[in-house]
Each structure stands twice: as C-alpha cells, then as structure tokens.
Amino acid sequence: MVRLLFIMIFGCAMLSLSAQADRWQQRIMYNMEIEVNVSTNSFTGKQRIIYINNSPDELNKVFYHLYYNAFQPGSMMDVRSRTIEDPDGRVGDRIYRLDTHQMGYTKVNSLTQNGRPVQFVDEGTILEVTLNEPIAPKSAAVFEMDFTSQIPDQIRRTGKFNKEGIDYSMSQWYPKMCEYDYQGWHANPYVGREFHGVWGDFDVKITLPKNYVVGASGYLQNANQIGMGYEADGVKVPDNRRSNTLTWHFIAPNVHDFVWAADPDYKHTKLQAKDGPMMHFFYQENDKTKDNWEALPKIMDKAFTFINKNYGKYPYEQYSFIQGGDGGMEYPMATLITGERTLGSLVGVSVHELMHSWYQMILGTNESLYAWMDEGFTSYASAATMDYLKEVRALPGSPADFAQAGNYGGYYTIALSGKEEPMTTHADHFMTNFAYGRAAYSKGAVYMSQLGYIIGEEHLKKGLLKYYDTWKFKHPNSNDFIRIMEKQSGLELDWYKEYWVGSTHQINYAIDEVTEADGGTQVSISKLGRMPMPLDIQVTYTDGKEETFYIPLRMMRGEKPARKNQERTLLADWPWTHPNYNFIIPAGLAKIRSIEIDPSLRMADVDRADNSFSQ
Predict the structure, then answer these.
(1) Quick one: pLDDT at residue 13?
(2) What is the pLDDT of residues 100-144, one digit of tens each?
(3) By the 8 A CB rule, do 51 and 176 touch?
(4) What is the CATH number of the domain that holds 32?
(5) pLDDT tens-digit series, residues 470-489
(6) Distance CA 227, CA 523 (A)
(7) How much is the mean pLDDT over the chain?
C-alpha cells in the first residue's frame, strides 16, 4: 500500500497542487543514500532530486539549505547567539567554542543538473547554484549530488551525543532544496528559527552498524529484514551476523522534511492508535524514563482521538516519538523530545510536538514569515488537548477553568514589558528571543482563542476544520486563514488581523461610571487602548439572574450568535473612532449586583482591574 501511494504521488507530481486557481506549488522527489561512520561521527551521501517547476517563472538559479554549517565558530547562528540580548541557553557561546572535531559541516563534492556539472558557491548555510540551463515553467530538472557531512555536537536540534546520551539526533542533516513560491525564493540562512520546505516524496537509505536502532519519518520498507521491533507479528528476522552494518530503507510520501535518530540502546515499542496511525516510541530505558514512557502510548492514543475530531484527520499511517535532541522539535511523522521528564512534562511536550503535525507538517505555513500560525495555533490546540486529557483522567489533575490561561499570561508578560514587536516581524529578526517567543507562541495562541470570542466558539470550531481541509498540503498564509473564518462566520475580520498581527496596539476597556437614569441604569465605558473589540458585558442582578449586553464593532458588519440558552441583549454598533460608549440597563441600580466586561477572560484586556463594577 505504501509503495502504491508513493507511485501515485510520483505520477501526479507534475500537477500543481492549489487551493485557488492562481496558487501553484513546486514539487520535489528526493532519493538519498548515506553511510555513517560512527568512529568519525561523519557520513557520506548521494542525493538525486527531481525538481518540478510548477511556477509560471523561468528559474536560473536554485538554492539549498546546508544546516550543519551553522555549527561552526563565526557562523551567523554563532554570532547572533553571542550578540543578542537574551541568547538561547542551549546555544550561548557553545558554537564559538567548538573545535574541529566537534563542529558540523556539509561539503558538496559534486553537483550536476541533468547530467552536466553546475557552478555552485557555499554561502554559509545556503548553497547558491547557477544553472547551466534555466528550468522552464511546467518542466522538471534532475540534480545529482555527492556530499560529505560531519555531525556536530548536540547544541540546537541536531547533533551527536545529547545530554541524555542519545548518539545521533539527525534533523536538518541533508542538503535541502529551498522553497520557491508566489513570493519568490526563500533562501533564509539558518540563524536559529523555523522552516519552509517543498512538498515532496523521500526515499532514504541509511547504513549504520547493525547494533543501532533507528526511528525516522516515513515507512520502513525492509522491516522484516531489519527487525528491531519493526517486524510484523510472527516474522522471524534473518540472522545478519555476517554483516557489520544494516541499511535502513524509509519512504516518506508527501512531506517537506525528513528526520531520523539512532542509538544502540533504544527500546522500541508500538501501539496502534484507535483513531490514528501506528505509534512508535524510541527511548533509553532507565529509572528516569521507564514508568513514564510506558504510560505514554495509551495517553497519546487518547490525544490522537481528540485532535482528529477537533482539528482534522491525521493523514499518515505512522508517527514516532523519539528521545533525542535538546527539548522538543517537530518533523514530519516524528518528533525529537528529551525523555528524562515527569509524566506531565513528557505528555506536554509530546502533545505539543504532535500538534505541529497539523499546523506545520501538514498545513506547512512559512514559519519565517508566519511563525505564529504554527507555534501559536499549536500552543492553542495543545492547551485544549492537555485539558481534555485531564478531563478523561488520562493525566493527573483537573481541567482548568480556562485552558488558555497560560497563553494569555505569556502575552501579558510581553505586552506590559515594553519589548513587544509585531507578529509580522520576520522570525530571525526579532530584537530578543523573549519578543519572538511571546509573539509566536503566546500571542499566536491568544489570536486563536480571542477569535473564538469575536466570532463564537462554534464558528471557530467549524472554521478550524474547514481551514485544515481546505489548505492542508498547500502552504496557507495569514490571509488564507482569516478568509476561512470570515466565510464561516459571515463577519468582516480583516481589522482583527491588521491590529493583532500587524501592530502592538493593546486592548484596554474600562467601566467609567454606573449611574441611575430614568428608572434604569446607565453604563459608561471608555476605550483606553488603541485596539477596538466587540464587547460582552455581563450583568448579574441581585436575584442571581445573569444577562449579557453585547456591543458589536461597526466594522465587523454583523455580530456573533448568542450562545445556547444565553440571555443576551444586542446593543448598537460601536464605531472604532469613538473613545466612549453609553448604554442603558432597563433595571434600577439597586437591582444590579455587578457588571463585568468579558467574564470569559478571552478578550486580552491588558488591565482587567477596571473591567468590573460591583456593589
């Protein structure tokens, strides 16, 4: 079945995948063979690429990422880490202190286009290739490369001998073609952030000493010859003692990257998810890992069920949780996570990295430009999933009153710090790691949660499924997402994207005055922040009854629906130009116990102290 799927994708590769008539995508097929020398921690590789130009443009150059070259003293990643105000503690000045045996590199020994050598120049982590002949629109070219790489010490994401003793965490390990799309080439040097890649099919063979166990993206093609826990039930694995090595053959269809990890001490277990793929788990069994990694599979089974229902169906047949790396990092069909954690931490990192399969591995936004669309949406969905796992008692603890509270807290930290930068800032160009992290993770998650406040939770839930089904495998941008939500809700939402994403304007409303007015009660509200919002105002009467007064923004061109069984009074629209708003509650002041703006806490008001009135 896997082989047939690969052939079908290969046969359709010349077709442009698009969600709209004018949206085209490039396509690529990788065939790679590498042989690892564990004595020198290096490998030699052969790579054959079929690159399909579905664009309307003639291409005179192509570019490759050479990620390993970042792990050399004087690299852009090194200098950036030593000069930024708040360096990542995992990096610091460690790259600067690497000696020749500890650093990483990828050296391209030869490269041909359609059988003829081409000129290329190594510009740090980018290989710039001048083509012998242009790649015409709607045509393909074949590139063949011999390369040699030295595996760096584990510092950031990739490398050898991480702090938990995993031999090889092999992410960003091969020369990877840069993406070319409707915005042109994305040949971003590797400074420390995330990725953008070409959808394609990977056929990878990895030769290692036979005592190593490998976890990877894709489907192992020779499982019954390899064994190591991959073999089918009842299969007797052949005796390979006459050979000192094994060659692992993986195929990964329709992905934009490929990761693997290897260690001679990995324990490999499997569990078929009830509503999902075969799950693989690779870890070193010891007193720090045994109990929690044994508990992890059943918990992640429940997580898959929840995620598939709420965010879209996972499309692949396998997923691997692999101990390795320097924290947690997502790749197609797999994640590298450090494994010596408490159960809550292990589940938390596993859920977060798994959730990236939806918002990066399958939707594939350009993380350099829209990091918040991956990290933020993932953080939002991860918080909801963790809350669900507590609800079904898969994890200790009770569901939170507000599952997104941590994400809002992260946003408030940056909003009140004076160091916030717009979410439109290129991921590599934030002035601090603090500003990047809060923009991408916290404010990105609040973007999603607050959208539910603006359009209604049911519209958000349905919109998320429509977004996934419409844009999976198609590299959506920020406008693609908000248009889905506009169509779902019937509301105009460009203002929300422009304010929340394109600026650092804050939300700050206050109840200024509550007074008697002709037998009713007048409420005066002021907009202190620069960002306008629709308002839910909850009035609690002395008899315990609750009523919501809802003020839409005029520029929304509509209003969200009332919740089921919600007592709601619809008020006149509030134009964004007006700093003040008054309305009347048709009850005397003596009958009112309290008035509160947004009791749901989903509107990210930076000063909630003046959001309520009580007596």
Answers:
(1) 43
(2) 999 999 999 999 999 999 999 999 999 999 999 999 999 999 999
(3) no
(4) 2.60.40
(5) 999 999 999 999 999 999 99
(6) 72
(7) 95
Q: What is the pLDDT of residues 432-447, one digit of tens each?
A: 999 999 999 999 999 9
Token pair 């292990």: residue: 346
Residue 7, pLDDT > 80, answer: no
Q: Identify the domain containing residue 24 by its residue range.
A: 1-194
Question: Residue holding tokens 């109840």?
Answer: 511
Residue 442 domain flag:
no
With a CB cutoff of 8 Å and minimum separation 6, the contacts of 277 are 304, 314, 316, 317, 318, 319
C-alpha to C-alpha distance for 71 and 159, rounded to whole angstroms: 10
Q: Residue 20 above 70 pLDDT?
A: no
Within 10 angstroms of residue 297's Cβ, the number of other Cβ atoms is 17
Using a 10 angstrom Cβ sphere, with 0-12 exposed, 13-18 middle and 19 or more buried, the burial of residue 134 is middle
Strand positions, DSSP E, 327-459: 328-331, 334-337
Domains held by the chain: number:
2
Whole-number pLDDT of residue 240: 75
**CA dihedral sign of residues 382, 385, 391, 395:** negative
Tokens of 223: 């499982």
Residues 494-499: contacts with CB under 8 Å, at least 24 apart = 495/532, 495/553, 495/555, 495/556, 495/576, 496/451, 496/454, 499/531, 499/532
- The mean pLDDT of 312-339, rounded to a whole number, is 98
**In the prediction, which pLDDT does 428 show?**
96
Q: Starting at the edge strand that comes first in sequence, how are the strands of the sheet with 119-123 ordered?
A: 119-123, 126-135, 59-65, 176-177
Q: Indicate the Cα dihedral angle 15, 19, 20, 22, nearest 10°.
A: -50
The string of DSSP letters for 289-319 reads THHHHHHHHHHHHHHHHHHHHHH----SSEE
Structure confidence at residue 5 as a pLDDT band (50, 70, 90): very low
Residue finishing a domain among 154, 169, 194? 194
How far CA 172 is from CA of 190, 224, 416, 503, 541, in Å, comes to 10, 28, 36, 33, 60
Tell me the two tokens of residue 284: 């070193």
523 occurs within a structural domain: yes
Q: Rounded to the nearest 10 degrees, how much is the dihedral formed by the CA atoms of 106, 111, 113, 118?
A: 110
Token pair 């070219």 is found at 141
Q: Taking Cα atoms as reference points, which of 372, 563, 547 lies closest to residue 460?
A: 563
Q: What pTM value is reported for the model?
A: 0.95
Contact status, residue 107 vs residue 149, Cβ threshold 8 Å: yes
Beta bridge partners of 334: 320, 331
Residue 365's nearest CA partner among 374, 356, 357 is 374
Cβ atoms 151, 144 nearer than 8 A: no
SS3 435: helix
Residue 176 lies in a domain: yes
User: Whose structure tokens read 């169906």?
Assistant: 313
End-of-domain residue from the set 131, 163, 194: 194
CA 589/CA 613 separation, integer angstroms: 11
CA-derived radius of gyration, the chain: 27
72 is a domain residue: yes
What is the Cα–Cα distance from 46 to 245, expressed in whole angstroms?
18
